[in-house]
């Protein structure tokens, strides 16, 4: 099928583009810069220039496609205001994409986060949070899934806290970035809180499976590691960078500090059984061993 994708040049998106192309699909990708456009075309995708705020461009791309994969997000966590602006921009973009597909029975696959449930690993049956710093993303995804009642084969792939490849990406990547800047590999709380994780190449396979096969209105978990202790993650980062490992205040991590401190393991048992998805690439702690000092 012809797939319109946003965020196709990012860590996850570039893997999804390659997975789609390698499995017989064609890709039309949104590109907001010359560098993104060059990377996408180099991978074999066609491109259309624009960003998430260009709603007419999004509608045109969706209208041309047999299915849509939405991955783009501003990823600006520098302040509560910047985060809120990114959430609002994404919500408007996802609504525009969904409205274009109403009545067509075409797939709309969007990205979400795995929820956190006190005392146990979350499952695909648990609702995503709709309050807190990123609650707006949850509300946007729920609205997209509700389009199943209006003739859209909408589905959400819930991503864990860290999507990684070659030692970078996600929350673990932010820990590495901060450790390089501060000279300390820090973790909030006592470090026993757990973060789920998945390799980007394994996540890409799940996006394709959901695009091709998932029923309307469903949610799926792209989780390989159910929960790595944050202190263990920080320990590997500290050893690879040659910096001390220690507890640091939640405020170190800005407006998402409280999320960093939360225990949030997650299961993908239903996803694996229902869609036949089997992660095959290195775990997070194995992949972090590829971090280069300096």
From TrEMBL:
Q: Which Gene3D superfamilies match?
A: NAD(P)-binding Rossmann-like Domain (3.40.50.720)
What CDD domains does the database record attribute to this sequence?
SDR_a7
Residue ranges of every copy of the NAD-dependent epimerase/dehydratase domain listed in the record: 3-216
Task: Give the molecular function GO annotations.
Answer: aldehyde dehydrogenase (NAD+) activity
Its GO CC terms are: cytoplasm
Query: Which intervals of the chain are annotated as region Disordered?
Result: 113-134
Q: Would you say which domain of life the source belongs to? A: Bacteria
Q: Which InterPro entries match?
A: Epimerase_deHydtase, NAD(P)-bd_dom_sf, NAD(P)-dependent_oxidoreduct
Pfam families hit by this protein? Epimerase
For this entry, the protein name equals: Nucleoside-diphosphate-sugar epimerase
Question: Species name for this entry?
Answer: Kribbella shirazensis
Classification lineage: Bacteria, Bacillati, Actinomycetota, Actinomycetes, Propionibacteriales
